[in-house]
Amino acid sequence: MVFDWLKKVSKDYPKFWENYLETFENKPNVSDQKRYVVFDCETTGLDHRKDVILSIGAVAVIDSSVLVNDSLELFLKQELYKPEVAFIHGILKEGKEEKIVEAEAIIRFLEFIKNATLVGHNVNFDIEMINQALKRLNVGKLKNDSMDTDAMYQKFKGLQEDQHSSLDELCKILKVEKSDRHTASGDAFITALVFLKLKKRLAIK
Amino acid sequence: MKNSIAERIADFLKNFPPFFSLTYAELVGISKEIQVVHVEKNHILFKIGDKTHPFFYVVKEGAIGLSVTSDAEEALIDKCDEGDILGLRPFFAKDNYLMTAKAREESLLYAIPIDVFKPYVSQNADVLNFLLESFASNTRNPYDKENKGKLISENVIYTDQNSEIQYFQPISYTKNPITASRKDSVKLVAKTMTNSKIGSVIIQDNNLPVGIVTDKDLRSKIATGLFPIDIMVDQIMSSPVITVAENISIAETQMMMLKHNVGHLCVTVDGTNKSKIMGIISEHDVVLAQANNPGVLLKQTKRATRSKELKAVREKLNDLIQNSIDKNIPIQHISSIVGEINIAITKRAVELAIEKMEQQPPTRFAWMNIGSQGRKEQLLMTDQDNALVFEDVDEERYDEVKKYFLELAEKVTKTLNKVGYEFCPAEMMASNPMWCKSVTDWNKQYNSWINKPGEKGILMCSIFFDYDFIVGDEKLVDMITENIFANIHNNQLFFAYLGTDALKNPPPLGFFRQFLVEDDGEHKDTFDIKSRAIMPLVDAARLLVLSQDIKGINNTYLRYKKLAELEPQNVDLFESCADAFSTLSLFRTEEGLLNSNSGRYLNLNELSKSDKVKLKNAFQPIRDIQDAIKNRFQLTYFT
Asked: Where's the Exonuclease domain (chain A) (predicted)?
């Protein structure tokens, strides 16, 4: 075939990445409901070059529902470990949760998100953390569309771009009960509820 | 795999029935399959006729109202809030929802898949029982008493308020009537009728109605000598007999009787004369069926000549109240009808007493009801509170005149006691010399309450500020009213004391929104709805209308309505007080009817969860109105 050579010259990606890219090729059916994945990463710090992911929590949102049975929670083994942040997120180096290496975590994350629109609070940071991990696996960057709850709130309230709100603030304003803060899943769930409320208010399908 | 979100949901569910009957691991397992649904205020989760969802719902946050539609009107029948379950219908039926669930506030719901939960229902008796019981308690609402024990979403029977016209209620009739066969002699039939004290006999052949013999037939055909007395009854019976089916309404019954010019109808299985006899309806049944009609009761009151007859009216009034509550007539309408009949009874009791006195009243007088009777809020048989005022007379005649009226009052209160209104234990009755006096003496009395308010004086007086003219000369009462309003105008001290009194019972909820119950005595652990919830609203309304110079409105509900009209800026507050007062009165009345008492003490254990919520919702306005009073009358220094 004419195009076969094109595929050959393209870099020989690992299977998981091929699978991930494939999810973007399927034209969505009109009747398919749009799937969002709300996610959050707990990290060793805020420097995406030096810090690494400790855990990932993600949950799907379709229409006006959070699908608990379509969720993901991963704890990562880590080399870099800062004891001073452990007390914030509660993940000890040898915690009792089952832990997996970063590569496996990223593969499972990609399997989970597929082509969903990624949602998070300050989502760009979390996406960047994932992208850094992808880089270590020698594959490309995330291709998903993304939506940021901070930006959504700015739009809803007509705030300036430099007026940021923390997740805690949004929870308070939108009356989302906080608990389990500072675990990736807990934050992902709270963010999902914030997202549901903002989504309705902004009339996003 | 760990699922923190599911754990978080399980942590919530485990606090509520029936989930607390399950193990934590089971709950986490269920929670993993849950969807969290967001519903905006006024958005509909499901509506009548919608295909059932594969889920049932638990309210996590917010409130969902369940309503049914009746004659294009939506009628709220229940409100679900945190921890409440709704949408159970798919557990039991494959067809569509029978109710509409609409968010009353922005809400989050946990949608639990029916398929996931079903195994737990069949395996766990506690869960099954809870679901069954919750259906039972869900139906404990005034709309469908008949369906107690059935699931509300299974069996919605809702009687529309507007269709409440007694004429369309089925008539009750005499079942298994006495019959005769066509070959019986007229004499035998007449004897049977006489012995059984009945006015008609259905003539049957093989249990099918073939005719009827009534007093009229005996009169017109036998007594006139037209037929001999020994002939067989089928010679003189009216035939065919008019037959009807069961469940015929009062109105239809009357129409049939008029149309066929008969006084009796025979009820048969299918309504034709080719089916078995079931019973007989007479004109008397029609009259009886309307006996609960307020107009009929009023007429009976006016015609009563003895206390026994008044007592019968008052007893029928209880049925009227119960029926009206069952039929979902607003408590406010019931109160005003019952109030009118109470007044009529009192009025008649006074008239009868005057007849019994040897002489006519020596001077003009007026009989007043005070307290709850004066406010026309007395639905149940509670104490009588009344007072009498007579025209000023010369000093030398005073003792003699007072003696007459005391004697009269004694008779009236005794009659009322026989009717069922017990004597007031605090003797706040016109038969007490303290509360039977001339206009001038009453004015003095009120002035001392108003101008020298001591705690004790205020306690005594507050019910005397709710008075209602019953019979006699209304001008005397007007004179008292004028004096009161002249004296209280801008009287800050008086309002401060009345205000302090109105605040003496704080809103009846503890810090954790639990009910404050009675600590000791025979009513331990019951809730005193009268003094903890109703009286604070009554006291507040009285204070506010007095301070606004509003005359002639005694009823608490109407007082709040009037206040709402006068102060548009506070319309929400006053409307909510009016509603809360209605709700609380309804609770008290139902409790009272159930236990044949004053309904004052509610047994909280017997209340369903939704009733408790309704009650608690009625408490918020108490707090609000008390705060408003504190500010308005600057009571911070007094309390």
From this structure: 35-204
Torsion angle (degrees, nearest 10) of CA B121, B123, B124, B129: 50
pLDDT digits (tens, 9 = 90+) for B560-573: 999 998 988 888 99
Q: Which residues of A touch B33 (CB under 8 A)?
A: 68-69
**Neighboring chain B residues of A181 at a CB cutoff of 8 Å:** none
**Residue tagged 């029977």 (tokens):** B157
Q: How many domains does chain A have?
A: 1
A39: domain CATH number? 3.30.420.10
Q: Which of A55, A45, A39 is nearest to A183 (CA)?
A: A55
Residue range B228-283, pLDDT digits in tens: 988 999 899 988 889 988 877 776 777 778 777 788 899 988 888 888 999 999 88
Q: Pick from B578, B525, B588: which is nearest to B556 by CA?
A: B578
Q: Give the pLDDT score at B157.
A: 35
CA angle in degrees (0–180, nearest 5) for B218-B223-B225: 120
In a domain, A26, yes or no: no
- Nearest 10 degrees: Cα torsion B408, B411, B415, B418: 150
Q: Structural domain of residue A145, as residue ranges?
A: 33-201
Domain boundaries, chain B: 4-147, 167-289, 294-488, 499-637
Domain boundaries B167-289, corresponding CATH code: 3.10.580.10
Q: Which amino acid is at B271?
A: G
- What ipTM score was computed for the predicted complex, to two decimals? 0.81
Q: Distance between CA B464 and CA B388 in Å, rounded?
A: 12
The larger pLDDT score, comparing residue A180 to residue B532, is at B532
A168 domain residue, yes or no: yes
What strand order describes the sheet that includes B243-244? Answer: B174-175, B277-282, B264-268, B243-244
Could you tell me the CA-to-CA distances from B596 to A41, B144, B472 in Å, in that order?
A: 65, 21, 33
Task: Report how many Cβ contacts below 8 Å link chain A to chain B.
Answer: 69
Q: Model confidence over B41-66: pLDDT tens digits?
A: 888 898 887 888 888 899 988 888 88
B4-147: which CATH number, 2.60.40.10, 2.40.110.10, 2.60.120.10, 3.40.250.10? 2.60.120.10
Distance in angstroms (rounded) separating the CA atoms of residues B237 and B272 = 18
Query: Rounded to 10 degrees, what is the CA torsion of B500, B504, B506, B511?
Result: 110
Query: How far is residue B168 from each of residues A105, B161, B165, B252, B333, measured CA to CA in Å?
Result: 72, 13, 6, 8, 19
Listed residue (B508, B505, B515, B510) closest to B604, CA to CA:
B515
State whether residue B105 sits within 8 Å of chain A by CB. Answer: no
Is residue A27, in this structure, part of any structural domain at all? Answer: no
Q: Is B33 on the interface with A (CB under 8 A)?
A: yes
- Closest CA of chain A from B33, distance in Å: 5
Closest-CA distance of chain A to residue B577, Å: 28
User: Which residues of chain A does B38 touch, with a Cβ-Cβ cutoff of 8 Å?
Assistant: 64-66, 193, 196-197, 200
B288 in contact with A, Cβ within 8 Å: no
Indicate whether A46 belongs to any domain.
yes
Residue B67 confidence (pLDDT): 79
DSSP strand pairing (B100-103 vs B527-528) = unpaired
| A186 close to B (CB below 8 A) | yes
